[in-house]
Here is the input.
Amino acid sequence: MSDMTGPADLEIFQERLRTFIFDTIPAALAGVVGEVPRGLAFRGALHGAGLAGLTVPTRFGGQGLGPEFEQAYAQVAANRAMVDDKMFFLGINVILQSLIDLEETALATEFGPRMLRGDTIACQLFSEPEAGSDLASVRTKAVRTEGGWILDGQKVWTSYGHIAGIGLLLARTDPTVAKHRGLTMFLIDMDADGVEVRPLRQMTGESEFNEVFLGGAFVPDNRVVGGVGTGWSTTLTVLGHERLAVAKAGENTVRRPLPMARIVESVADGGNLDALLDAWMDERTASLVSRQIARRAQAGIPLGPETSLGKLLRTRNGLRAAKLAAEYSFDGGLAWNPGSRDQDLAFEILNAPGMAMGGGTDDIQRNTIGERILGLPREPLVKEGNTSK
Ligand SMILES: Cc1cc2nc3c(=O)[nH]c(=O)nc-3n(C[C@H](O)[C@H](O)[C@H](O)COP(=O)(O)OP(=O)(O)OC[C@H]3O[C@@H](n4cnc5c(N)ncnc54)[C@H](O)[C@@H]3O)c2cc1C
Here is the structure.
C-alpha cells in the first residue's frame, strides 16, 4: 500500500478501506468501546490489512502515505461502529511521532513496528500529583549511575500504564538549575524492577488511568530521549503531537455519539435544531483546522501553538456533542445495558470531560492561544500564599 500517492490511488484506497471496514472485520470487532482483548484483535486485523500507521514512514513500519489517506480512513471509519483501539493512541500518534521528530531513529526503528503491529503499548508518564498543567515542576528525579539512571518518584493519570510495555517519562536530572532546564525525557520499560502500577477507576467504569510509583527503577543511557537536560523542549514536541492527535481524533465528534434516528425524530418533534446545526458547523471548522495543521506537519513545518487551537476546538465540540447526545438519547446517558449500543453512547458522554483535560486542560490551551497566537500579555502567576499576583 505504501506506493500510493495520487488522487486515483486515494479512490482505490477508499474502496479497499470500505471492504475492510464493512466486510472484512468481523462483527465481533464492531461496537462497544474500551475492551483490551478486542482492541488488540482489531489492531492485528488493521496491521494485517496494511492499514496500520498510514502516515508513518515505511522505515518505521508504517505505510508512508499523506494526511489525506488518514482523513479518508477517519471518514469511512466514522460510518461504522468499531472497536476503539485507543490503547494504542498515545504510542502511535504521539510517542512514535515524537521519536521521529526528535530524530531518535534507533528508538523509532525499534519500537515503531512493534507499536503498529500492536505488540507494544506505550504510555506517557508526565503528570504528577503536584505537576499536571505546570509540567516544569515535576519532582520525579533521575540520578546518574553506571550505564544509565536511577529513577524515584510518582506519576499519576497514566493512561494504559497497566498494559504498557514502555513509557515516555519526564524526570528532573538537575535540581540545581532553573526548573525548565533541569529536565530529561526517558523511555522506560514498564516491567522494570522498581516500577509499580496501580489502576484508578474512572466514571466511564474503566480503569484506563493509573498511578505509577518509581522506586529505584533503572533506565539505560540509550533510552534517554532528546538528550540530557533537553526535557522541556522534548515535552513541548510531545505535547504538540498530543494536541494534534486529539484534534484529529474525533473526525466525527458530533456524528459518532449522536444516535441519528432519534435526533431526526426529535427535531421533527420541535427539538433543538439550532444547537445541532451549530455543533455540525463547529465540527466542520475543527476538521478543517486539524487537517491544515496535519498538512503543515507532514510538510516538515514544526508544530506550534496552533495545535492548542485544534485541540480546544475538538474538545469543545466533544463536550457539546456529549451534552446533545445525553439530551437526545436514552435516559440522559445515565443507564445502559452492557454490550449494547447505548454503552458506546454512554462512554462517549462520560469520556468527553476527560478528553478536555488530557493533554492539557482547555484553560491551558486558551492561555497558549492568547499568549502565543494573539500576542496577549502573559497570564499572571498566582502562587500559594500569595494572592497579590
Ligand atoms: C482522560 C485523561 C487522560 C490522561 N492521560 C494522561 C497520561 O497518559 N499521562 C499523563 O502524564 N497525564 C495524563 N493525564 C493528566 C492530564 O494531562 C492532567 O490532568 C492535566 O494536564 C491537568 O493537570 P492537573 O490534573 O494536575 O490539574 P491542575 O494543573 O492542578 O489544574 C487544575 C485546574 O486549574 C487550571 N489551571 C492550572 N494552571 C493554570 C494556568 N496557568 N492558567 C489557567 N488555568 C490553570 C486547570 O486548567 C484546571 O482547571 C490525563 C488526564 C485525563 C483527564
